[in-house]
Amino acid sequence: MGDRAIDVYEAYQGQVNWPQVVASGVRRVFVKLTNGGGQARVRGDRYVAGARAAGARVGGYHYALGGDPVAQANVFADELIRLNALDLAPALDYEDHSLPKGPAAQTWIRRFLTQLNVRLPQLGKNLLYGSGSDLQAMRAWEITVPGADVLEWAAEYGVNNGTKNPIRHYKGGQAAVHQYTSAGRVPGIAGHVDLDDVLANIDEGTVFVGDRPPPTPGTAATIRAALIQMMEDCMVTFPPAPTTRTKVLALPPDYDVTLVFAAESTIFGGHIYNWTPTEGKGTGGDPVQWRVEVKEGEPIRIPSGTSKAHVEYSCGTEVSCFIQVKPRG
């Protein structure tokens, strides 16, 4: 493909003129969303909104730290969903010195990406970022997870002067993205910025329908079809929650959707709230404020036009959510 992307963090790049960035040829933007077990110190809201409004495809990345990979994956998934930063494959930035290295890294990465794909089953790709030498040492091309491809994002600069140099250290696999400098310059950004050469398809084909318009004209039918195919006879697993927790489901607003919940123990305090593609319509904006109690084994018909459902629950064991989608009428 050879398209240019950038990866940014507001704490470093500061104020950005996004129309200038996109006009310069940048079409894909990765925003730092989370760091270890929490949100990034400077949250990604403004960057995600600004890049998207200027016409870029937007994704997020997580800066991993030593610790529980499952917990970190959940934090990352929460931010990806909250900001709908799902135009690009979500990226795991695996470079910190506190993380396992070499072959031991594979186990940590698999646990992180497996949990991320449990939370975001509609996505089909993950990106694994690291230096070329680190990716080689961990044999990154061997890492696989259920339900999604793992694509490598290799950072290799050569002479770090803003120009492209070939990948020299990562020999075992084929990088999907090459970060070739951290000293790049892009109109609309005052200081240095990481520049990335996109060498394979890293775009995701589905978005949370109804949250915003399709990224390009004429793709609504494609997005809808992909989302329907993904959700038909689909089961999503929610983790145990000793206290009340919220999960988000993306739903196609022009199809009939039914949810059925099951668990090995009682589901307490379960409710579903709905949002529609029309701004202000849905719980929190609609005077009707539709909500329904989650009852195990009982089919729950979601109101027509719902694009997003917030499932609020607490349960001592995992909760399985079965999703059935049918053409309306």
Automatic annotation (TrEMBL):
InterPro entries: GH, Glyco_hydro_25. GO terms for molecular function: lysozyme activity. Keywords: Plasmid. The keyword Nucleotide-binding does not apply. The keyword Membrane does not apply. GO terms for biological process: carbohydrate catabolic process; cell wall macromolecule catabolic process; peptidoglycan catabolic process. Pfam families: Glyco_hydro_25 (PF01183). Belongs to the glycosyl hydrolase 25 family. PANTHER family: LYSOZYME. This is Lysozyme. It comes from Amycolatopsis japonica.
